[in-house]
Amino acid sequence: MTDVLDELTPDEPTDAPRAPASLNWRQEAEDGIVRLWLDCENSEVNVISETVLTELDTLLDHVKETQPKALVIRSAKPAGFAAGADIDSFAELRGEGAVAKLEQGHAVLDKLEALPFPTIAVIHGAALGGGFELALACEYRIGIEGAKFGFPEIQLGLHPGLGGTWRLSQLVDPVEAMQMMLTGRTAHDRKAKKLGIIDALVPERHVEAAIHAAAKGEMKHHAQGFRASALRTRAARSLAATRMRSESQKQAPRTHFPAPFALIDLWEDHGGSKAEMEKAEIASFAELLDSVTAQNLIRVFFLRRKLKAAGKGRSGIAHVHVIGAGTMGAEIAAWSAIQGHSVTIEDVNPEPLGRAVKRASDICERKHLSGIDTRDALDRMMPDPSGLGRARADLVIEAVPEKMELKEKIYASLRGKMKPGAILASNTSSLRLADLVDAAPERTRFAGLHFFNPVSSMQLVEVVSHDRAERETLDRLAAFVTGIDRLPARVTDYPGFLVNRILAPYLMEAMVLLDEGRSKEEIDRAALAFGMPMGPVTLADQVGLDICLEVANSMRSSLDRPVAETPAWLREKVEAGETGRKAGKGLYDYKGGAEPPKSPEPDPSTEIIDRLILPMCDAAVECLRNDVIHDEEQLDGAVIFGTGWAPFRGGPMRYARTRGLGECRDRLRALAERHGDRFRPDPGWDSLA
Q1: 607 catalytic, yes or no?
Q2: Do 568 and 462 share a domain, yes or no?
Q3: Residue 119 sits in which domain range?
Q4: What angle do helix axes 661-675 and 652-659 make, rounded to 10 degrees?
Q5: pLDDT (tens digit per residue) in 85-106
Q6: Is the domain of 574 the same as that of 445?
Q7: 206 an active-site residue?
């Protein structure tokens, strides 16, 4: 990457007329080749904004007049090519205004595509969304090792809107193109080369040779296969589109996620004509932009940004020491090392330490780290059976089983061993910090750092305060969380904190429904139909029935209100070792091949959905009333990123407000009359209304 950074300092222009003034582009020319460097003002990453495109439009007119041998477009940002469109600039657009802006953007990229000399995009890092569409408008694409490409718009309830639907489906096998757009998955460097997205994949030191080869027309384009040719016909596209709709429907119905179906319709109806497809793309994008789904998903984007902003500043944490090499401890240690921290991990047994290193290696492979980056991450993570890292660490994270006596014993052993200023954080999910703080070596530098499993995939981390924690301690922990590419949710000490307090009723009510004779498949498929990423029965197995039981018992003893009773058979399962997926058997029998359902119920029981979902909304209201988190936006963001809670519905509070606060409260009262006081609405509903 050092070579890349050296190259990303373009020289002043040498043999071209002075380019028009620009805030976001820099131009240089050498050997008859013009280079435009995208360098968005006041930003660490490039985004494709209206200003970026307007400036590019003027620059293209200027470059065309100079008639160079070729035009090269690349990024001056070490972070990558371009992260996508500027969501701030289009989030508020509607109707004719959206159409007009999209038409302007199309015109700029069409102008780039039509230039009478070779145009070459050189991509390092990520080219996503609008950045990918900019690269697609060039004749050639040269990828630097580690480059990746994708259209994440589907995650915002949209599809590409600057010509990407046409250009990608014409460039590569249309089915592969559609899969990329429908799933939002990225194609990493070698995959992108195989598909034909890039014409060359080279290390930085060979970029100039590749540019000159493309400028001379000596670089060959990827040859498309027979299927790509066949899918140019409407009949073939209709057959493929039918299959795509069927697969999309299994994931989520059109009423919840209209964007995949709009994209399929667009390709099927207009995939044979550039002019028709681009015109229809603009109309479809503008219509989707006005949908409730897109507006909620765009809101989720801003919720993510708001959570991340809570971790601004420097943590002062370089060395992390993790006590406990179980599943959570191993994941915390591995992810911290991957993100650049020196890590020591301690356990009383050597076997878990070996498994922790293996887990770290697996995570590196899953995250597509290079061999060098994997080696460096593993070098930063050191098994420490003697606990020598305790004395050197800036942050000690305790991640041992949820036993008060065990945690207190560990805290006692840390007295006099931690260096001055070091922080002790507990990863507890069911114990109150108020019950642990007196055992901590330094009460003001003790707090909760509640990760979610698996840490390498789950974005949220709860930073949990208590009455005696210093503000500096909490600020440093939030900054640490942001520094390891996770989202800090600042919450107060409360039974289950925030996420588990809201998630627990979902899991516990599922156990009651099972006890009443409802099938686990029916319960899970009803939740999937609502939009949850995982049914509560499946989730209970994923979390671990033993953990679920601990959380339920903690809620029952800590909360002032009734909670669902735990069926006796659940305790018996845990005692028998049938604790869920990790044991091979829980509520589902994984060894026997009985996998949970993945498709939603087409006609789900509204009774089941309300019994699962409304108690979560009620718990959210309770948390707001008790100041567990600052506001509704942070609450919705935390629940979405901590549990995957139906993001297209905007979070539990957004859902409650959309459905109607009065209606939710009245429905809870009706459920309380039928099923007991656990459904009795929290007093906070009245003040919200």
Answers
A1: no
A2: no
A3: 2-295
A4: 100
A5: 888 887 788 888 899 999 999 9
A6: no
A7: no
